[in-house]
Write a structure and sequence with these properties.
It is a single chain. By secondary structure, this protein is α/β, with parallel strands linked by helices. The chain has one domain: NAD(P)-binding Rossmann-like Domain (Rossmann fold), CATH 3.40.50.720. The protein is 46% helix and 15% strand. The chain is built from 8 helices and 7 strands; from the N terminus they run βαβαβαβαβαβαααβ. Strand 2, helix 2 and strand 3 form a beta-alpha-beta unit. The N and C termini lie far apart (41 Å). The model has no long low-confidence stretch (mean pLDDT 98). Bound molecules: NADP nicotinamide-adenine-dinucleotide phosphate. NADP nicotinamide-adenine-dinucleotide phosphate (NAP) binds next to helix 1 and helix 6.
């Protein structure tokens, strides 16, 4: 049985990596998906793949820092598919990295906006649409960075991703009585273009794998399975969590 039949989902960061894998999985599980990112061609290709496999998807290109984009995504979900049940606010990037005193104010602001303000904007517009359906599931992509692990050179990213967890906890309490569940996933190292940019040599890749108890990093499809869990009725009593799906990077001391 499909786990998301009759559900409508918005997925940001869908042009690549975790968002791309989640879009394909959600569509396979019966969801109608609104896929979002800045790169139109990648989104169009994704919609084509989903439709070829018998699924339903529509793309909207834009920047998650932009309030009008957050609103337009919800309008698209309602206009094309009749409502909204799941918001996977996943788009993000590490932004400007380096020793904290060297980080520019504009780099700091951009990283916070890309990873944290975008989460707020998604929630701001997705929540009222879910209230109209009698409930829903808001899911955000945070990280072990800034929560269970301190990593040098990542001040803005770590602060933004930790901020997402605060947003999750506040909203879970605010909207629990209205049957909206609010959770964050905290992926460990995951084999995506972003991770390949971060670990760009074999030595660095071996180091990153070694940080994990499982001595490897995840595939985007493995992370997508956890997002599916939080989106589906398999997790009806799960809210307010910062759900580690991190291969043991947070507890590893070996
Ligand atoms: P990725 O392959 O680089 O994907 C990032 C996605 O976000 C792309 O679809 C990108 O699309 C989109 N995006 C970035 N900035 C955007 C913006 N301003 N507006 C709209 N879309 C934007 O990386 P990923 O690893 O799948 O990352 C997904 C999420 O997982 C991120 O939040 C990341 O911080 C988090 N994460 C990743 C790892 C890891 O090891 N990979 C670990 C922990 C957490 P466009 O470029 O087309 O806009």
């Amino acid at each position: 049985m499909q786990q998301l039949s009759n559900k409508v989902a918005i997925i940001t960061g869908a042009s690549s990596g975790i968002g791309y894998a989640t879009s394909r999985l959600f569509a396979r599980e019966g969801a109608k998906v609104v896929v979002a990112a800045r790169r139109q061609a990648e989104l169009d290709a994704l919609v084509g793949e989903i439709e070829e496999s018998g699924g339903e998807a529509v793309a909207l290109a834009g920047d998650v820092k932009d309030e009008t984009f957050a609103k337009a995504l919800v309008e698209m979900a309602i206009g094309r598919f009749g409502g909204l049940d799941v918001g996977f606010n996943n788009a993000g990037s590490m932004g400007e990295m380096g020793p904290t005193p060297d980080v520019s104010l504009s780099g700091w602001k951009d990283t916070i906006e890309t990873n944290l303000t975008s989460a707020f904007l998604g929630a701001k517009y997705q929540t009222p649409a879910m209230l109209g359906r009698g409930g829903g599931s808001l899911i955000f992509t945070s990280s072990f960075v800034g929560y269970t692990v301190g990593m040098p050179g990542t001040a803005a990213y770590a602060a933004a991703k930790a901020g997402v967890i605060g947003l999750v906890k506040a909203m879970a309490v605010e909207f629990g009585p209205k049957a909206i569940r609010v959770n964050a996933i905290l992926p460990g190292g995951t084999d995506t273009p972003a991770a390949r940019g971060f670990a760009d040599t074999e030595d660095k890749q071996a180091f990153v794998k070694g940080m994990h108890a499982l001595k490897r990093i995840a595939t985007p499809e493995e992370i997508a399975q956890t997002v599916l869990y939080l989106a589906s009725d398999a997790s009806t009593f799960t809210t307010g969590t910062a759900l580690l799906v991190d291969g043991g990077v947070s507890i590893n001391k070996t």
